[in-house]
Give the backbone structure.
Amino acid sequence: MQVKSILSTFLFIFLITVPLTKSKAQEQIPFFDLWSSFKEERIKDRLFKHEDLIPMVKAYSTLPDFEVSQIGYSFEGREILLLKIGHGDTPILLWSQMHGDEPTATMAILDVCKFFAQSDSLDYFKNKIKNELSIYIIPMLNPDGAQIYKRRNALDIDLNRDAMMLESPESKILKQVRDSLNPKFGFNLHDQSAYYTAGAENKPAVISFLAPAYNEAKDINDVRANAMRLIQIMNRLVQSKLPGNVGRYNDTFEPRAFGDNMQLWGTSTILIESGYLPGDPEKQYNRQLHFAMFLDAFQNIANKRYLFESLHEYHDIPFNQRRAHDLIVRGLKYPYQQKFPVIDVSWQRTETFNSDYRKGYYKATISDIGDLSTMWGFEELDASQYEYVAGKILKGAWKDMQNMKVIDIIRSGHSWVLAKSQPDQESASKLPLQIILHERDFKNEIKISRNPGFFLHMNGQAKIYIHNGIKYELDELANILGEKTLADYY
Ligand SMILES: [Zn+2]
C-alpha cells in the first residue's frame, strides 16, 4: 500500500514536472547569444540598398517552408516583396523600413530568415513555430527612401501618415497585405532618434515600444491589450541585457498612422523603435536584440503564453524623453558682451553621405546653450576650471600652409583654415580643422546650429580642444595626428 502510494506520488510528480520542465527549457533558448551563428554576414552596416536585399530574400523561395512573392512596386519602380515562413493557422505580419533611413529591423529580419532556413538542434523549436504561425514579412517597404537614406518615399510622402489616403503605392501595398491576411499580430519596425533617453534616467532608449492607440480616448480593447502583453515579454528580454534602456512612446492617437489604424482594423500592433547605444553607430547590438525579440515574440504567440500577462508592466515602461546630446560642456565661462555668463553647451550630430549613399559622415552643431542640468551627454566635460579661448583662423598662401603639421596649426590656437579648396568628404571628416573658402564663412561663436572650434586653457596652457562636437585632449590629439600635414588631407 505504502509502496504503491510512493510510486503513484512519484509518477504524479514525474508526469507534471516533465512537461513543465520541457516547456520551460523551450522558453529559455538563448536567442540573443545564438545570433552570431545566424547573422547574415553580407549585410555589415546600415547603408545597404534594395539591390543588396532583394537577391537575398528571393533566394529563400527555393527552401521548404519559405514562400516569396512580389506584391508590387514603389513609386520609382523598385520591387516590394512579401516573404512567408511557416504554414500555421495564426498569421502575423512584420514590415520594416517604411522609413527609408530606419534599417535596423531589416538586418535582423535577414538573420531570422537564416535562422529558420538552417537545420540544427533547434529544429524542434523551428518546426513548432512553422506549424503554429504563418510569419509574413515585408522587408524594406520604402526602397526609394532607402536608396538615398531618407525617411520619406520618392515623392517625399511620409508613409506613416498615408494610412487613410493611401496615395503612395507603398502604402496601398501594406494595406492590401493587411486586408488579405488579417494578421493576428503586426510588427511596425522603425529606428528612432539617437537622442531619446528612457525616462528621466541618464540612459539612452536603445529600444522603445508602443501599442498604438486606435482612438482619441486611447481605449484598451483586446486587440490593443494583446499588443501590450507581447511588449511586456519583449521588454523583459531587452531589460535583461540592458537594464533601464527601454522607453515607451507617447500613445496620442494619430489618425493617419499605420500603427494606429492597424490596431483599429483588428491586428494587435506593436511599434518597435530601434534607438542608439553609444559606441555602436552601425546598430549591430540593436540588430542582435531584434533577432532575439522576434524569436521570443514568435514563441510566445505560438504557445499563447502572452495571454497570461497582466498589463501593469507595460505602463511601468518610462516614456521617451528627448534629453540626450553627443557632448555637453558644462560650466563654461563664456566671454560675451563684456560679461562672463556661465553656460552649458551641447552638440548633436547629423549624418551626410557620399554620392552613392554607401558611406556616412557626421557633422555636429550646437544643439542647446544655457542651463542643461536636465540634459545628458554621451560625453560630458566640466569646464568650470578652464579658461575659454576661441579658435583662430589660419590664413596665408597655400604653398606656405600646405606643409604645416596639423597638430602645430592647432597648438598655435587655430581651429579654422582659409583655403582655396576643400578636401574630399572622407578626408575632411578626419581633419580636426574647419576648412572654409571665404572669410565671411568664419563664424566661430557659440550659437545654436553653429559648429565652433575652441580651446580650454588651464594656467595659460591649452589642454582641451573642441572640434565638431568632439572633445580632444591636446596631448592625445598629437599622438593621433603625428606628422600629418594639411596637404596629406588633399
Ligand atoms: Zn520611422
